[in-house]
Design brief:
With 141 residues, the protein is an alpha+beta fold. The chain is built from three helices and seven strands.
Length: 141
């Protein structure tokens, strides 16, 4: 399935989960429900995927985990906070860089309208510097 088609399915699934549950729950609840919804739609979903960190040829077991990886190509980082902070965006961009994936969604379910809590981020080419990592894609309607 093409990235754009999968991305649309991801956003639609998030809308479905948010309509059913609303805001105010824990991230882990939204993660489990979104994974289930994506699975029902026929997408491959892996939860809590370890992110390898290598520093100067030394593997560092830091315990970083991506919330969801969909179709082995798109990372979803889930939040349930009052607002998204720059550090949340940086976290997703770092996960993309370390994992080799290029497309990710930052989703904050603690909002009245889920579309206000969804950010689509695309990793640009190297050299990697936090300031020029992402080209904000237009929000998926």
């Amino acid at each position: 399935m093409e990235h754009d088609s999968v991305a649309r399915q991801i956003v639609d699934a998030a809308v479905t989960v948010h309509r059913y549950l609303g805001p105010g729950l824990l991230e882990s609840v939204y993660e489990q429900c979104l994974a289930s919804e994506l699975g029902v739609r026929g997408l491959s979903v892996t939860r809590q995927v370890a992110v390898p960190v290598v520093y100067r040829d030394v593997r560092v077991d830091a315990g970083f985990r991506m919330d969801l990886v969909v179709n082995r190509s798109i990372v979803i980082e889930i939040k349930a906070s009052d607002n998204l902070l720059p550090v949340h965006k940086a976290q997703l961009l770092t996960y993309l860089k370390l994992s080799g994936y290029r497309l990710g969604f930052l989703m904050n379910f603690n909002v009245l309208r889920i579309r206000d809590g969804i950010r689509r981020l695309v990793l640009t080419s190297a050299p990697w510097r936090l300031g020029d990592l992402a080209v904000p894609a237009q929000r998926t309607p």
